[in-house]
UniProtKB/TrEMBL annotation:
UniProt xrefs under InterPro entries: HTH_LacI (IPR000843), Lambda_DNA-bd_dom_sf (IPR010982), Peripla_BP/Lac1_sug-bd_dom (IPR001761), Peripla_BP_I (IPR028082)
SMART domains: HTH_LACI
HTH lacI-type domain span: 3-57
Domain of life: Bacteria
A GO MF term: DNA-binding transcription factor activity
Organism of origin: Paenibacillus rhizophilus
Stored Pfam families: LacI, Peripla_BP_1
Protein name: LacI family transcriptional regulator
Keyword Lipid biosynthesis: no
Alphabetical list of PANTHER family matching this protein: HTH-TYPE TRANSCRIPTIONAL REPRESSOR PURR-RELATED (PTHR30146:SF148), LACI-RELATED TRANSCRIPTIONAL REPRESSOR (PTHR30146)
Length: 333
């Protein structure tokens, strides 16, 4: 049977009000009395009611986290960084996987706000100014992860996607490839737009034509990568090299290479965005843009804690973390 507050007070030799003050930190209690109360709680295995406590102290110690696809290895490591950092502050995470579905995202938002969360972290599937403004109207501290709202309405932590795509394209150009294609993510999302922007910047700065026939927009999933690389390889004039904007899309492309007997980099050179574990053991090993995923999670968690502690008063910050290129054999290295 679960111990009660009265039983803790009796064992500690204090009043129930004193026990409540120790638990909720609502009034001064001497260190000696605190030790008595905590010892009694331990002996009785007493666990305070967090919901009741949150109503009294106006905090739940819960952070809502909405992720577009938790099966993506990138997000798995970001979430680990978030959880590890928030745990040190005594906060727990309520994780929601939205599948990049805006209706699902809106429904989860209602659920999380109903849980009296102290802050919200979002990798949003929203693509309209109206939706982001609706997000800005919620009465809890808010930080965006990976995908940037337009206009900026709250803090954002993301990889410098323009730079990452530039590095990937520049690397292919450095190998002597001139007819270079790109498979982008959805251009309604900042990561899709920024990676296309970086690709175009590199092509333009090296005096190479950006052929619209070599730009294919897809979704950040395996099926999209498979079908779009198939389209490229079915054309009469094929690209010499392709930059693929997401690890799932690159995995789909590799499935197609296997099915169709395509030689990489003999028939087609490839650089991917993201560096999942399978990239090192793929045939051939994948040259990839590595994101600082765990660090991104840490920085997001630090920002949400800063907003909680300062009363959500500071101006929005944009933090762009540096990607790096990991050279392997898929590009001809």
């Amino acid at each position: 049977m679960k111990a009660t507050l009265k039983e803790v007070a009796k064992l500690a030799g204090v009043s129930t009000a004193t026990v409540s003050n120790v638990i909720n930190e609502t009034k001064y209690v001497s260190d000696e009395v605190k030790k008595q109360v905590f010892a009694a709680m331990k002996e009785l295995s007493y666990v305070p009611n967090d919901v009741a406590k949150s109503l009294r102290v106006k905090e739940s110690r819960l952070i809502g986290l909405m992720i577009s696809d938790i099966t993506n290895p990138f997000f798995s490591l970001v979430v680990r960084g978030i959880e590890d950092t928030l745990a040190k502050e005594g906060y727990n995470v309520l994780l929601c996987n939205t599948d990049s579905n805006i209706d699902k995202e809106k429904e989860y938002l209602k659920v999380l706000l109903g849980k009296r969360i102290d802050g919200l972290i979002v990798s949003s599937s929203g693509d309209t100014e109206q939706f982001f403004r609706e997000m800005a109207d919620i009465d809890v501290p808010l930080v965006f992860l990976n995908r940037c709202p337009a206009p900026l309405i709250s803090d954002v932590v993301t990889t410098d996607n323009v730079k990452g795509a530039y590095l990937a394209t520049e690397h292919l150009i450095g190998h002597g490839y001139r007819r270079i294609g790109i498979i982008t993510g959805p251009l309604c999302i900042s990561t899709g737009r920024d990676r296309l922007k970086g690709f175009k910047q590199a092509m333009n700065e090296y005096g190479l034509e950006v052929d619209n026939k070599l730009i294919k927009e897809g979704l950040f999933n395996v099926q999209s990568g498979y079908s779009l690389i198939k389209d490229f390889m079915s054309e009469s004039v094929k690209p010499e090299a392709v930059f693929i904007s997401n690890n799932f899309m690159t995995l789909g492309a590799y499935h197609y290479f296997h099915d169709a007997g395509i030689s990489v980099p003999g028939d087609l050179a490839v650089v991917g965005f993201d560096d999942p574990d399978w990239a090192r053991i793929a045939n051939p090993p994948l040259t990839a843009i590595r994101q600082p995923d765990y660090e991104q999670g840490e920085r997001v968690a630090q920002l949400i804690m800063q907003r909680i502690k300062t009363g959500n008063q500071s101006e929005p910050q944009e933090i762009y973390l540096n990607p790096s290129l990991i050279a392997r054999k898929s590009c001809g290295c």
